[in-house]
Amino acid sequence: MNATMDVLVSLSKRRGFVFQSSEIYGGTGSCWDYGPLGVELKNNIKRVWWRDFVQARADMVGIDASILMHSTVWKASGHLDHFTDPMVDCRECKHRFRADHVNDLPWTHHCPATKGNKFTIPPGEPCGHCGQRRTLCPECGKGELTAPRQFNLMFKTFMGPVEEDAAVTYLRPETAQAMFVNFDNVLQSMRLKLPFGVAQAGRSFRNEITPGNFIFRTREFEQMEIEYFVNPHDRVDGRPADEYWHDRWIGDCMAWFQRYGLRDENLRLREHDKDELAHYAKRTVDIEYKFPIGWSELMGIANRTDFDLKQHSKWSGKSLTYFDEERKEHVVPYVVEPAAGVDRALLAFMADAYREEEVRGEKRVVLRFHPELAPLKVAVLPLLKKREDIVRVAQTIRADLARQWRVVYDDTAAIGRLYRRQDEVGTPYCVTVDVQTVGDAERGETGDQRVTIRERDSMEQIRVPVAELAAVFRELLGGVTWADLAPRYPPVRS
Ligand code: ATP
User: Fold this and answer.
1) Which of 383, 386, 428, 385 is nearest to 407 (CA)?
2) CA 140 to ligand 1 centroid distance, Å
């Protein structure tokens, strides 16, 4: 079964992934807080992204820039003039919609053919009784909608104590601009040669007119963006370098999502039509994911040409060029931008990992997270919480493993229940300490000093010496599969 959004929202709240922001005050529209497991999952996503796209590559560096930037940045980037969505308002209930989203919403209809009965009709469909299509407000079904007006999505604020025009600044609506304005700083300080990329992960803010669908579209979110600069005069494999690298990045990003668990059938590429392209973009391709709300953008990969560097050079008066030693000339690099949303990636990883299975006649919910993404890596569970020696060994194991991974100890239920709890949050391995491990001191038995490891997906169990646990998990959490490792140890029949 594919997870519905309601199922994910409720699991997220119940198990500490995502909470409604300021819930005790009634919640803040479209703002969400990551709970104890959500923050681990989110950090893991950002960490593997950084490791794979920055740390592991010789042609990449990172920055972490300020959210508040000089206000001219947004003039130069085009955001002040063009970062707008057309909005319409209901004259009756004052509800505000994105003009281009109105037809995608279910609509409220007071049907004249049924004495004004109220119906909620699916998006785009006519009323089954009177045949009318929507003309009024989809929310209240009564008010007329205003003509579309452009609404800038940037959050405005003031720098310093005086609220005057000169102090106006904006919360960044994307992380990308900091890479452009720091182009020369990074180039000079790191002595880079084209092609090279600069990455950043951080918060962005957009005053979205119609946020919603849980963490899919929010007003405060995180992005992981890369600006990959190439020499437009270079050719790679007989093609212009920018086109070659654009395709390389599309392939690398797609492979990255597949590597961490998104299934092929839930991923696709969407090429932007010419009339949809931003005026500066040569080509843009979105990676779309089949979210519970349908196919939607997970990330975008755009060829932004030399637009941004030229704009910032024009507005700042500073040269933002690269000296091409071979051709003995200054060039303005082209840039390929892979831009992903952390929250959307998290939602996709969660939706894809969600399974409802039947195990011995009982329903089990399991999040089949890739081990590197799983918020908890190991849960250590004592089989008998009243036996002090068992509890002591279990807690020592937890403390030992926790020096390397997020590991929890839980003794608040019977073992079957504890396993289900860990399955539901995607913990790949459970370690159980039992009587056999510690033996019976009164009878002079020392125990076998082995524990049971249970794997989440197959539910198979093996018996492993306590002394080898850290080494075993180093393998299992470092890429060795269960199928390869398990045969080395005796199985346990459950
Ligand atoms: P959309 O068309 O969905 O509004 P966009 O094309 O404006 O997105 P970009 O500007 O390309 O988005 O931003 C890159 C990525 O940042 C998106 O693919 C998405 O993952 C994420 N993102 C953008 N806006 C939001 C938002 N309001 N909430 C959560 N994530 C977002």
Assistant:
1) 428
2) 28
Only one residue has tokens 């960490």, namely: 47
Q: Which residue's CA is the nearest one to ligand 1's atom 25? A: 217
What's the pLDDT score for residue 374? 98
Measured between alpha carbons, how far apart are the two ends of the chain, in Å?
Answer: 26
Question: C-alpha angle with apex 422: 416 to 424, nearest 5 degrees?
Answer: 105
Separation of CA 120 and ligand 1 centre (Å): 29
- AA letter at 355: R
287 Cβ inside 6 Å of ligand 1: no
What is residue 52's DSSP assignment? I
Check pLDDT > 80 for residue 475. Answer: yes
Give backbone dihedrals phi and psi of 253, rounded to 5 degrees, phi first: -70, -40
Answer yes or no: is pLDDT of 59 > 80: yes
Hey, is 432 helix, strand or coil? strand
Q: Ligand 1: which atom is nearest the Cα of residue 216?
A: 29
Residue 231 · residue 195 · CB < 8 Å: yes
Which residue lies with its CA nearest to atom 22 of ligand 1? 341
- Specify the DSSP class assigned to residue 164: S
Q: How far is the CA of 341 from the centre of ligand 1 (A)?
A: 6
| Residue 206 in contact with ligand 1 by CB distance below 6 A | yes
Residue nearest to atom 18 of ligand 1 (CA): 299
| Per-residue pLDDT band at 225 (split at 50, 70, 90) | very high
- The predicted-structure confidence for 418-455, as pLDDT tens digits, reads as follows 999 999 999 999 999 999 999 987 888 889 999 999 99
Distances (CA, A) of 182 to 62, 186, 200, 435: 11, 6, 12, 61
Percent pLDDT > 70 in the chain is 100
Overall average pLDDT of the 342-357 stretch? 98
Pairing state between β 60-62 and 196-205: parallel
Residue 339's nearest CA partner among 291, 290, 281, 264 is 281
Ligand 1, atom 3, lies closest to the CA of 297
Query: Distances from the Cα of 405 to the Cαs of 38, 139, 262, 305, in angstroms?
Result: 16, 48, 23, 42
- Looking at per-residue confidence, does 163 or 43 come out higher? 43
pLDDT at 317: 98
User: Which of 85, 269, 344, 349 maximizes ligand 1 atoms within 8 Å of its Cβ, making it the mutation to test the pocket?
Assistant: 344
Residues 19-27, mean pLDDT to the nearest whole number:
94
Q: Ligand 1 centre and the CA of 5: distance in Å?
A: 19
Is the four-CA dihedral 387, 390, 393, 399 of positive or negative sign?
Answer: negative
Query: Which residue's CA is minimally distant from atom 26 of ligand 1?
Result: 217
pLDDT given for residue 482 in this prediction: 97
